[in-house]
Amino acid sequence: YMTLWQGLLTDRYDSLDELPVWRRRTRQFDARKNELSRHGEPGAEEETWKAVLAVRRIARELGSTTSELALRWAMAAPGVSCVLAGARARQQLEANAAAAAQGLAEEVRRRLNGATETLKARLGPSIDYFENPANDRTR
Predict the structure, then answer these.
(1) Which H/E stretch holds residue 17?
(2) Mind listing the pLDDT tens digit for each residue in 66-117?
(3) What is the spatial distance between Cα 19 and Cα 133, in angstroms, rounded to a whole number?
(4) pLDDT digits (tens, 9 = 90+) for 27-79
(5) Radius of gyration (Cα) for the chain, nearest Å?
(6) Phi and psi torsions of 83, nearest 5°
(7) Residue 83 and residue 74 in contact, taking contact as beta carbons nearer than 8 Å
């Protein structure tokens, strides 16, 4: 779900504030800063940005773009058989297809999982990132 994380894993944005406001409606972002949010939570912006930077750092170490690594990471997750990623241009589509064709070493997958563990713990087990966990629509 949200493989490229509302665009944060595309190397396009240099801060969370650059992300369009309509993409900042998820629980990672402070609902008090966005009238479009309906989750009502304070968000996890510090943890989110640290996770983004960690994934970017790992991508650079591997000679990859962040979006390519994010797609490979999602594809390498146990139990995942399909990954959705939008593309607005042929170049993006081709890059997505190329990334999907590559594997991901287990050690890299573990590093990525570790780099995002603090954020995952902060957000908890609810996978509905647009709603408060009390209103989780996925149960």
Answers:
(1) none
(2) 999 999 999 999 988 888 887 889 998 898 888 888 889 999 999 999 999 9
(3) 23
(4) 999 999 999 999 999 999 999 999 999 999 999 999 999 999 999 999 999 98
(5) 15
(6) -125, 130
(7) yes
Under 8 Å between Cβ of 113 and 76: no
Q: Do residues 129 and 24 touch, judged by C-beta distance below 8 A?
A: no
pLDDT the model gives residue 85: 83
CB 3 within 8 A of CB 83: yes
Q: Which residues are CB-neighbours of 134 under 8 A, at least 6 positions away? A: none
Residues 84 and 76 sit within 8 Å (Cβ to Cβ): no
Residue with tokens 């790992």, as numbered in its chain: 58
